[in-house]
Design a protein that fits this description.
- The chain has about 400 residues and is an all-alpha fold.
- The chain has a single domain, classed as Growth Hormone, Chain: A (Up-down Bundle).
- It is built from 17 helices and no strands.
- The longest helix is centred in the first third of the chain and has 33 residues.
- The protein starts with a helix and ends with a helix.
- The model has no long low-confidence stretch (mean pLDDT about 85).
């Protein structure tokens, strides 16, 4: 075995990142497996395109807006593990519960519950991971964790697709995801037992956290908000594919796996290159992500073409934006910093989802232009924030 690999495996901080990543692998397998059939299931229960898009947008809004509160509680209580377990429990168990509902309104409530659970645990987990970034680099730590996330997010929809291929029902697919939910919780328990105080990892490096929120932090939040407002929900994409006969019902989850599989590769590359080159990688990722709305063209080739760019858009969200904010965390306010950032992000996603859901039946070309344009508007704000960050460093 390569000596560099051996050294990494022997490092406790690296093992912690891997154990959290494995927990997230099973977690993403659960809720992305459910997410790959949520749009179709809501449609079967009678929801319209606008309702589905608004449900997805509200779910993301709850999933992001509550992070500032959960991050603040995590910071003040000093119990990030407790916040993590509560959040993972709500997040994961809401998915198999979908098998029990018989109206789209109740299904929507469970989708909201799943996102709220993610909001509770996300700032705590990301703040714990931030203690390892001094050793391995912000881009690489979050890229590795997100790549493991996306591995689960690739497998989960394939499981759902396999069930549908074998004439299984949506309800059975949701029920089976209880297995991966339990595995995620067990993996998290093992990580907590092995590494009860992740903040000790930062003793191995020199902490250079600022004392308060910087101007660049707020400009990055604005950039992220514009990017989020043009980000697509897979629920609306799945509804579009089914309604227009672009793909057979049991193959739609496979297409999500193609997007998330592309995201795995994108995460590792952009995370590593971000640590080396910084801003240019962010700008390139946003430009490529702006091609993802082409999925709404009534053309199967355009749908396939757009899938890797959807993967890049989620890699940008989960790796690059997280890595950027991880470099601006005020002392004693790590959870709050992540939470506040994603509150603005989630609000913008909700607004964008409502607009795109309304535009879907009115004019899909306008929808495509809106989604692409709002993402591209974020570019000058990323540049301005980066320059402000350099000024503050001197």
């Amino acid at each position: 075995m390569n000596k560099k690999i051996q050294a990494s495996l022997a490092n406790p901080a690296f093992r912690f990142v891997m154990m959290i990543g494995i927990a997230n692998l099973f977690a993403d397998m659960t809720y992305e497996g459910g997410g790959s059939i949520n749009g179709q299931f809501l449609g079967k229960l009678g929801a319209s395109a606008a309702a589905i898009s608004i449900i997805a947008g509200l779910g993301e809004f709850f999933g992001y807006s509550l992070r500032s509160l959960s991050g603040y509680i995590s910071d003040k209580s000093g119990k990030p593990w407790l916040m993590s377990f509560v959040g993972y429990g709500i997040n994961l168990l809401s998915v198999p519960a979908m098998a029990l509902v018989h109206s789209w309104q109740l299904a929507a409530l469970l989708i909201f519950s799943e996102r709220i659970g993610r909001a509770i645990r996300k700032p705590a987990v990301e703040s714990m991971l931030s203690y390892t970034t001094g050793k391995f680099g912000r881009g690489w730590v979050y890229a590795l964790n997100t790549a493991l996330d996306e591995t689960g997010a690739t497998v989960g929809p394939l499981v759902a697709a396999l069930i549908l291929f074998n004439k299984g029902s949506y309800r059975f697919a949701y029920s089976l995801l209880l297995v991966s939910a339990v595995l995620a919780l067990l993996s998290l328990m093992l990580a907590q037992i092995k590494f009860p105080i992740p903040s000790h990892f930062e003793n191995e490096t020199t902490s250079s956290n600022p004392e308060k929120f910087s101007r660049s932090y707020w400009i990055y939040m604005l950039a992220g908000a514009f990017f989020a407002s043009g980000l697509l929900s897979y629920e609306l994409v799945a509804f579009h594919l089914l309604k227009n006969g672009l793909l057979m019902e049991n193959r739609i989850p496979i297409l999500l796996s193609l997007a998330t599989g592309s995201g795995i590769i994108a995460n590792l590359f952009i995370g590593k290159f971000f640590d080396r080159y910084g801003l240019p990688i962010v700008l390139a990722a946003v430009i490529l992500s702006a091609l993802s709305p082409l999925v709404f063209l009534d053309n199967y080739s355009a749908v396939l073409f757009s899938m890797p760019f959807i993967g890049i858009s989620y890699a940008t969200q989960d790796t690059l934006l997280t890595a950027i904010i991880a470099g601006l965390l005020p002392k004693g306010k790590r959870g709050l910093a992540f939470g506040l950032f994603y509150t603005g992000y989630g609000a913008a996603w909700l607004i964008g989802s409502i607009i795109m859901g309304s535009l879907y039946d009115y004019s899909r070309p306008t929808l495509i232009c809106f989604a692409a344009t709002t993402q591209l508007i974020s570019l000058p704000f990323f540049i301005l924030a980066s320059r402000q960050e350099q000024v503050q460093a001197f």
